[in-house]
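Reminder to self: tokens first, then the designed residues, so the page reads top to bottom the way the pipeline ran.
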């Protein structure tokens, strides 16, 4: 390239023509001629080419130094395509001298012939698509549609929440101002009061703070707070025993975060955590002020607050512990609802990923490495409640605490497990669901104790009370003491009492048939009971506590010795059923009602475990289950029927051996997929059978179970089959009534979720408990199969964020192929053509390599993962990041996930490509209509400007104006706006460039125009796929502006994170095509694109934000290549500063006739 001298307005076109003509000629001739022409470059041909160039420019600058290879072969001029002689008048190929700093510098003095003529590519329409690409895209879109359809329609839990009602009022604390917190103008603190029950702003009870989630409202507390006020006023306050035990009303506070997007922005989460700590300090101070408190002065002042967090509010509550302004022991109980504890929902912000790592590390290592006396979290109780499959906002797998806290300090439970709730819930329903809020309020009142300054019971008792309320009672980990419970009832029976043989099943059809109280005794004989057996009792009637109104009681009794002169200890109840019997026996008993487990009723009339508004409520079943070792201290189990009139109620009780009740089906997951599982239960089976299937652990598979009963008896059926599917941990249970055909899905081992603290937690796999009527003497046939279509829907929630990473793998490989062909042949092929080439080799090979990598990691374990993860560290024996790679699972059975996701992403990329192409095509037509006159003038100007500005077609803006625009934008990024906002602007500008390039290429379909159109289009697609990583921060920033919060972000002002994009887009805006790289540096281009593709596959889901930096690095490298077409010597600064005037003179001269 020749540079004009200082003050000159034009450059010589000599080098432009010399470089442009050989490339166009090569594409116009056959391969044989191209080889001869490339080899016969001589001095006469160069002179001929030079003289032809001078014919276009009569006044060249012969003395200008030639200091760079021009990009003439890609001189993007509309006039070139319209003048056919321009391509035909070229002589032989030119040899151009090299200069220092040229990116194409090689050991030879000219571009190697093999690089230019090794393969000739004919430009194809961007709409064209190969058969391979078409079939792959169809397969990918079909899979995507199947996944979405399955997620929305198959294996879906029924909705069972009943609407709640309340009379809310909120009192704002206006004095919680900037003197207390720097966020007083952005956030607010409120106190909830139920109208008609709670009056006045003064606090009087136990403080509870509600923290809303991502874009959540402070008013979401109203359902639970309303139920709390009514439950205390109607139930607890009249109960003297409850009030004497330290129960006081709950003061519900709630914070208004102005519906901030906490999940998108790490700094917002830190701001909220800081505000929460300040709010807690202020709340506790209210109880110290007599003017603001009506609390009993004899009670200690509260030192801690109970936290109730929804969604990301639960994470904010845990983040408060690692903030500098955290007040020690100010929080000792946290209950979260649908909170993603295990990992962030999206990983687009590096700060939020770091916050999660800091929070979880703090909680994990506080329990793992520190003694109890030094553990700052030793007194803290954490309960996570998940909504289940109906929660389509946050995967319920992420609510798991099993990798964060031990069982002694917290647990995870699903709403379908909670007694009387028995339904999954969506993300918002969990805050207002009527049956759930009732259980939540009762659990909170169970753990409070106003007599202690912490306002709660001890940590161990809190955990026990929470488990009692939230778990089914059938869990093996729920160890309830049996022998410590006092004997409260004295039962006197006569010799007319019925006694049942221990080896026989006790069945009572109809209560009150004798129309008088009757006692049935079941002897507990250790010699006749199996050592590993159990006692089971099931009834369709609630078990009552002893009292005058009791109708059905079950008592655990021992013979009470009668000795002369012995003083009878005080019993709460004295029941004498001896009547006129000549002999009587006194039994000291305790009630089994408190041990009863509530099960949903299973009859022909029930279709779901719950009932909705307007439906008739069928009373639940009562179930007792004792291990033999738990009842050996007793001699009888007494069933007391005190009904005075016949009822259709029934009771079934039996002693059974664990050999008959606990079955294990050892079957591999592969065999389960291919052939399924079938087994039968014999007619003499026990009432309840517990089947374990250890191989069923993953949450990615869904199953279908069929239960068929072949009855041989005409005996009237007591109840329909009742099925409970469950996991040991996390505590997830689902009930199915009238079970004949059941869809089974679970939240077990899940992708990207860290491994649990207990290594053997998942060894037991899926458990299935089946209650059937044993009086029918029927054979039960059970068939379990994998539901492949239903399993596709389970991929949706677990792999939604994969569309922010895997498509960049596809686009990265496509760009790599485009540049390789462009550097070798000078043709920049279209996106679809490049994708077709990638599908022939590079894409299948990369997906296959990632598949083998996943299999190798699964075989070698976490040690191999730590070797791959270079910056991971930790002293724990558990690698909590072992599931961060690839598709988030090391199970070799799921090897097909990588190819499947790859095919889906290919289809999505093709669809987006054609959507973008259709949009650009439509807008280019509008561009031609609206700016028709301007386009014609631009075409004329471009022919003149292209002579002075090498390789451009658009009207060349003033460099001074471009510099000022970029400087202003970069200044705003460094001070006010986040760089993500500038990235969105860059995407819009790139869209405009693509529209103009498409319009010009359609009007002048030359090779150079086609090259530029394809280049800017693929760059636009790359930027679009990188856009989801940047958009969330922009949304947060815009939201802050909407609420008049103008304080700049303290993060996201790194200018270097956006500067390469701005420079690249600016280069493309002026119509500047990137030059081919024929030196060894072309391998760096390949490495950058390939490395980005590999990273997108391996860590793209877990650390998606890094993809922005990788694409930013690619943009910087492309800008460096672009810069080789321009030189910026110090001597040209004056000409650069005078460019405005020079361009003005050029425009005036171009108007002369």
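Designed residues (1153 positions):
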């Amino acid at each position: 390239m020749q540079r004009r001298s200082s003050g000159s307005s034009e450059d010589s076109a000599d080098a432009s023509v010399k470089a442009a003509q050989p490339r166009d000629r090569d594409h116009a001739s056959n391969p044989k001629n191209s080889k001869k022409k490339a080899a016969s470059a001589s001095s006469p041909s160069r002179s001929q080419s030079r003289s032809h160039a001078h014919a276009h420019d009569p006044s060249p600058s012969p003395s200008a130094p030639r200091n760079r290879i021009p990009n003439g072969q890609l001189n993007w001029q509309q006039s070139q395509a319209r003048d056919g002689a321009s391509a035909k008048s070229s002589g032989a190929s030119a040899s151009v001298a090299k200069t220092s700093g040229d990116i194409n510098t090689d050991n030879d003095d000219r571009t190697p012939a093999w690089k230019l003529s090794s393969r000739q590519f004919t430009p194809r329409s961007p709409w064209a698509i190969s058969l391979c690409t078409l079939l792959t895209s169809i397969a990918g879109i079909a899979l995507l549609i199947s996944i979405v359809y399955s997620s929305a329609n198959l294996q879906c839990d029924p909705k069972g929440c009943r609407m709640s009602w309340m009379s809310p009022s909120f009192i704002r604390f206006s004095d919680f101002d900037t003197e207390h917190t720097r966020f007083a103008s952005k956030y607010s603190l409120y106190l909830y009061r139920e109208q008609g029950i709670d009056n006045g702003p003064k606090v009087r009870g136990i403080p509870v703070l509600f923290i809303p989630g991502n874009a959540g409202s402070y008013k979401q507390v109203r359902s639970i707070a309303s139920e709390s006020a009514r439950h205390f006023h109607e139930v607890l306050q009249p109960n003297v025993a409850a009030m004497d035990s330290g129960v006081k009303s709950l003061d519900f506070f709630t914070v208004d975060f102005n519906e901030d997007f906490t999940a998108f922005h790490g700094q917002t989460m830190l701001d909220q955590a800081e505000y929460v700590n300040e709010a807690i300090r202020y709340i506790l101070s209210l109880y110290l002020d007599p003017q603001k408190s009506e609390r009993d002065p004899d009670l200690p002042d509260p030192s801690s607050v109970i936290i109730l967090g929804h969604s990301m509010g639960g994470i904010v509550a845990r983040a408060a512990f690692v903030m500098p302004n955290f007040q020690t022991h100010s929080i000792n109980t946290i209950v979260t609802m649908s909170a993603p504890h295990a990992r962030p929902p999206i990983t687009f912000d590096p700060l939020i990923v770091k916050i999660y790592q800091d929070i979880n590390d703090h909680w994990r290592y506080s329990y793992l490495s520190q003694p109890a006396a030094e553990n700052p979290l030793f007194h803290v109780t954490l309960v996570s409640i998940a909504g289940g499959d109906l929660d389509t906002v946050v995967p319920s797998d992420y609510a798991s605490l099993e990798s964060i806290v031990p069982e002694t300090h917290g647990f995870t439970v699903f709403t379908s497990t909670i007694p009387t709730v028995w339904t999954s819930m969506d993300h918002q329903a969990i805050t207002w669901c009527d049956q759930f809020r009732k259980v939540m309020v009762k659990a909170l009142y169970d753990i409070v104790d106003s007599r202690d300054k912490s306002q709660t019971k001890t940590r161990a008792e809190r955990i026990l009370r929470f488990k009692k309320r939230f778990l089914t009672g059938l869990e093996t980990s729920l160890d309830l003491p049996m022998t410590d419970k006092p004997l409260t009832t004295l039962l006197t029976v006569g010799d007319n009492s019925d006694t049942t043989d221990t080896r026989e099943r006790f069945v009572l059809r109809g209560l009150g048939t004798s129309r008088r109280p009757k006692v049935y005794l079941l002897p507990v004989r250790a010699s006749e009971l199996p050592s590993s057996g159990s006692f089971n009792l099931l009834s369709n009637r609630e078990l009552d506590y002893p009292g005058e109104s009791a109708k059905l009681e079950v008592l655990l009794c021992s013979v009470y010795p009668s000795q002369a002169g012995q003083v009878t200890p005080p019993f709460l109840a004295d029941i004498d059923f001896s009547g006129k019997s000549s002999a009587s026996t006194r039994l000291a008993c305790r009630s089994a009602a408190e041990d009863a487990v509530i099960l949903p009723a299973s009859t022909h009339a029930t279709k779901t475990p719950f009932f909705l508004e307007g439906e008739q409520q069928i009373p639940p079943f009562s179930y007792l289950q004792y291990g033999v070792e738990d009842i050996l201290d007793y001699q009888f189990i007494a069933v007391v029927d005190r009904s005075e009139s016949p009822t259709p109620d029934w009771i079934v009780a039996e002693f059974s051996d664990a050999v008959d009740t606990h079955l294990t089906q050892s079957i591999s997951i592969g065999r389960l997929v291919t052939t399924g599982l079938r087994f039968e239960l014999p007619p003499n089976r026990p009432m309840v059978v517990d089947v374990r299937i250890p191989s069923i652990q993953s949450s990615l598979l869904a199953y279908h179970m069929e239960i068929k009963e072949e009855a041989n008896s005409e005996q009237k059926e007591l109840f329909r089959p009742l099925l409970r599917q469950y996991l040991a941990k996390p505590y997830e249970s689902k009930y199915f009534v009238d079970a004949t055909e059941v869809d089974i899905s679970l939240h077990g081992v899940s992708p990207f979720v860290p491994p649990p603290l207990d290594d053997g937690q998942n060894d037991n796999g899926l458990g299935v408990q089946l209650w059937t009527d044993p009086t029918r003497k029927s054979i039960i046939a059970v068939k379990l199969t994998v539901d492949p279509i239903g399993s596709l829907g389970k991929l949706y929630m677990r792999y939604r964020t994969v569309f922010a990473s895997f498509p960049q793998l596809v686009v990265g490989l496509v760009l790599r192929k485009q540049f390789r062909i462009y550097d070798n042949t000078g043709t920049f092929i279209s996106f679809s053509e490049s994708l077709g080439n990638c599908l022939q080799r590079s894409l299948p090979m990369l997906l296959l390599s990632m598949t083998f990598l996943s299999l190798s990691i699964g075989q070698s374990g976490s040690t191999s993962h730590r070797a791959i993860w270079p910056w991971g560290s930790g002293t724990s024996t558990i690698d909590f990041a072992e599931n961060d790679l690839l598709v988030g699972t090391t199970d070799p059975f799921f090897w097909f996930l990588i190819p499947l996701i790859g095919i889906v992403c290919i289809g999505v990329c093709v669809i987006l490509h054609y959507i973008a192409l259709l949009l650009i095509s439509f807008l280019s037509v509008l561009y031609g209509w609206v700016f028709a006159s301007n386009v014609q003038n631009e075409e004329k100007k471009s022919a003149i400007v292209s002579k002075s500005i090498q390789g451009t077609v658009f009207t060349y803006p003033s460099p001074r104006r471009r510099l000022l625009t970029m400087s202003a934008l970069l200044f705003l990024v460094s001070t006010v706006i986040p760089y993500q906002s500038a990235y969105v602007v860059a995407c819009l500008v790139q869209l405009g460039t693509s529209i103009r390039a498409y319009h010009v290429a359609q009007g002048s379909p030359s090779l150079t125009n086609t090259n530029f159109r394809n280049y800017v289009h693929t760059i636009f697609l790359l930027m679009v796929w990188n856009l989801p990583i940047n958009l969330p921060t922009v949304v947060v920033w815009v939201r802050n502006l909407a609420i008049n919060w103008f304080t700049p972000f303290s993060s996201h002002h790194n200018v270097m994170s956006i500067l390469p994009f701005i420079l690249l887009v600016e280069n493309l805006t002026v119509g500047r095509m990137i030059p081919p790289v024929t030196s060894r540096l072309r391998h760096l281009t390949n490495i950058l694109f390939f490395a980005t593709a590999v990273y997108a596959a391996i860590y793209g889901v877990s650390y998606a934000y890094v993809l922005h930096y990788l694409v930013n690095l690619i943009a910087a490298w492309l800008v460096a290549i672009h810069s080789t077409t321009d030189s910026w010597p110090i001597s040209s600064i004056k000409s650069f500063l005078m460019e405005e005037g020079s361009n003005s003179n050029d425009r005036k001269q171009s108007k002369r006739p």
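The radius of gyration is 38 Å.
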